Amino acid sequence: MASTSDSTPVNAAVNQLLRDPEGNLEAISETADLFKALATPSRLKMLLVLAHGEATVTHIVESTELSQPLVSQHLKFLRGLHLVGVNRIGREAYYSLKDDHVAHIILDALAHTVEGHEH
């Protein structure tokens, strides 16, 4: 498997993108959208809650101390980017991360930030 300069393994699709960025502008644009989604403290707090597992809007509101309308607005945005999914059981909606990659990105960034402050 190919690696970047710091030995991070990459799959074949990412390796192709590294070789031909101009031919993969859609993937690059979608990746930029991911970073835009992560660029607000409110959404980061919400995604950290969801990194622990499914949560209702009420649970997210209580955990983040954000308003219910703001949480709902952010969830709609995150669902539109396919970062968050919803599972409806009766009248209750349970939100979760669509995959673990988002949690890894956030946790790696937090580790980088915390470690940077310790030095």
UniProtKB/TrEMBL annotation:
Residues 23-117 form the HTH arsR-type domain. InterPro entries: ArsR-like_HTH (IPR011991), HTH_ArsR_DNA-bd_dom (IPR001845), HTH_MetalResp_TranReg (IPR051081), WH-like_DNA-bd_sf (IPR036388), WH_DNA-bd_sf (IPR036390). The keyword Transcription regulation applies. One of its GO terms (molecular function) is DNA-binding transcription factor activity. Keywords: DNA-binding, Transcription, Transcription regulation. NCBIfam families: HTH_metalloreg. This is ArsR family transcriptional regulator.
